[in-house]
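FAQ: What does a ligand-bound record look like?

Like this one, built around calcium ion:
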Amino acid sequence: SGGAPGAATQLGFTPVARTTADTVTVPPGYTAQVLYAGGDPLGADVPAFRNDGSDEQWGRRAGDHHDGIEWFGLDAQNQPSGSFTSRGLLAMNHEATTDEKLSSFFIHANGGTATLPRPAAEIDKELMIHGISVVEVRRDGRRWATQPASPYNRRITTLSEAIFTGPAAGSAHLATKYSPNGTKGRGTVNNCGTGKTPWGTLVSGEENWYGYFFRDAQDDARRNDPKITAAFKRYGRNAGAASRHGWESGGSDDRFQRWNTGATGASAREDYRNEFHTFGYVVELDPYNPNTLLTKRTALGRFAHENVSFAKPVAGQPVVAYMGCDARGEYIYKFVSAEKWDPADANPRNRLAAGDKYLDAGALYVARFNADGSGEWLELSPKNPAISGFKGFDFKTQADVCVFTRLAADAAGATKMDRPEWTGVNPKNGEVYITLTNNSARTEATVDAANPRTYSDMKGSKEQKGNVHGHIVRLAEATPAEATFRWDIYLFASEADADKANINLSNLSDQNDLSSPDGLVFSPATGICWIETDDGAYTDKTNCMLLAALPGQVGDGGARTVKSGNKDVTTHVGKPQTPATLRRFLVGPKGAEITGITETPDGRAIFVNIQHAGENTKMADVGDPAKYESRWPSSAGYGAGQRPRSATVVITKNDGGVIGT
Ligand code: FEO
Ligand code: CA
Ligand code: CA
Ligand code: CA
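The answer part, i.e. the structure of the complex:
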């Protein structure tokens, strides 16, 4: 049945069973249509994608590995509630690429070069498949189509000019040959989650950017600065670290050498020793205005950014954003703007000027979780004596804090979490949800109330350890700008048949069990909490999935003690789940992760990103489609060639109704 947009009170679809089928499976009564796949043209004059490794013009095609995605309406702003939206922009991240031994093998004719040095021509393609795309889409009946000739279509790549704003802009940390005064950067890479600002722009998190940099074995000695060396280590790059794709090996041109942290000019203004510090930020883009530059908002800190979610803005109150740093034992952050929200900025003439107003000055905090169910936001600033007095780094200015944020958070005494991924704000009550995807390094010695599980679970014949399946924590604050919160664990991911006393703590069943929650987005139209999964320890039995949830509130399940190894840990849990409160909506193709999700304002179309189908294919088999792990989406009748591609699917209800209800 249809139903008007509003707060859903029940989930109205048949749960999808776990499956390893190489297709996108949705409930009866729903249709999934492939809309926009890697390589699709973003210009009327760009040739159709051949999908055989010979395609050129990657700067004018959809990038690879679709991740976070947001809808920007072109006709919806003034439509009455319930009318069927028909035209908009999809802005999305192209996080990474399916690779083995340095090469993005599906985009090269023969699988590419897996040894160093790599050919410049291969690297030049790879530099362009990362970044962000904006594409116009329109509806005709229930079918949707991209508009290759739209003037809004746009690509941001690793080479696009970017400007720095906020405390670190113009600081010595960001001085490079490209921008000796430290005010500009070049491109964005490994963009994972997204967000939509209250003023109508895209924000996107640079996540595993450090893996793209090469550090030679002499770089510690060359720098002769133990604190900077320690900071490189804290951000995942020891001296001697190889890069993911060997981009530094392409030749002497700056577009290759910038990925080499050891380039040796006379000063930082003449080389790329600081290029590493120009990534790791939240970037902002105005999808409505192709003539504006990508903006790196340093006030929101530098770490492995997943996404950004905003508290509902309130007139006269600060703008508040929540963020996770996705690595084992990393932290949850919050930014509170100095400026107070003016509702006239909801549709401003200059959107990036609104970004300057709300995202360049404010306070950055990191979360500490207490065993009693309370928590604190610790301010990251040299005003905090724990930070100014920290022995591991000389924090003198907010620029230092914004570039070396992980070290400041260490100094502040934040709680090490089980890999914070997406954050989302429940529109019903303002509570903040954060997925903690899993943590193989969590042990009996390090469990705490907010990360209480370490256990053993099997993946086929392989034993998995730590917090194998992950969990979702949530926070309740009196107001979003508050320095304290209450928390509980809304959901413990688990396989249905696992021990209900210590592992399957949320009472999951065949209709709703999952591993490794990652994407989490609340629907503004229905209030449904959409949860997406990434790989995890369950892919021997099911491909990754999308689930729909109707959550309660912090504290609704009370305190509970669980056994982690021989240790008893008391934690705070949400209510047990039933298929009425959580059920599986979609299962993706083989090897794919379900990444971003967004919807039209009427809730009648959702756009879901399917990332890296077939990623376990061997590079040696690139010429033999019979050996591909997946041939999606060509197997679904979409596009040329059989090489698997990341893609956006649009899902509609056959009766035209609101999705999920
Ligand atoms: Fe790109 Fe943390 O997932
Ligand atoms: Ca993710
Ligand atoms: Ca993930
Ligand atoms: Ca991913």
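Follow-up question: can I read anything off the structure? Yes, for example: Residues 95, 534, 593, 611 surround calcium ion (ligand 4) (CB under 6 Å).
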